[in-house]
Amino acid sequence: IYKKGDIVDIKGMGTVQKGMPHKCYHGKTGRVYNVTEHAVGFVVNKQVKGSILVKRIKVHIEHIRHSKSRDSFLKHVEENDQKKKEAKEKGTWVQLKCQPAPPREAHFVRTNGKEPELLGPIPYEFMERLVLKIN
């Protein structure tokens, strides 16, 4: 199931105690570097005080699963390849970079006969009387 280079998420399963990851690795994502019969070894970043250490840990396969973090990227690449292929057939240029959302179109806001209310900061008022009442 797991191959070298796969991206996996660590999720410790309480029903299987053997080969469990330490609690600091729960929820982390790493890249597989070694696969054995029952376990998988992978590289994970671990923050220790101010520095990030690269750790190699081995965990039973029950405690990991394939990460979905790369799925959206691969889908995006597939769509871009399709667009490139279509553009090449038509002989046109196509935009492949992600574009930010454009600004909204100009429009009028209806007030239905009500006057717009001006909102502003509330003027500062010293609250000495309130402090004395509480104490």
Automatic annotation (TrEMBL):
Transmembrane segments: none annotated. Keywords: Ribonucleoprotein, Ribosomal protein. GO terms for cellular component: cytosolic large ribosomal subunit. Coiled coil: none annotated. Residues 73-91 have a biased composition (Basic and acidic residues). SUPFAM superfamilies: Translation proteins SH3-like domain (SSF50104). The keyword Ribonucleoprotein applies. InterPro entries: Ribosomal_eL21 (IPR001147), Ribosomal_eL21_CS (IPR018259), Ribosomal_eL21_sf (IPR036948), Translation_prot_SH3-like_sf (IPR008991). GO terms for molecular function: structural constituent of ribosome. The keyword Transcription regulation does not apply. It comes from the Eukaryota. GO terms for biological process: translation. Residues 73-93 are annotated as: Disordered. Belongs to the eukaryotic ribosomal protein eL21 family. Component of the large ribosomal subunit. This is Large ribosomal subunit protein eL21. It comes from Tupaia chinensis.
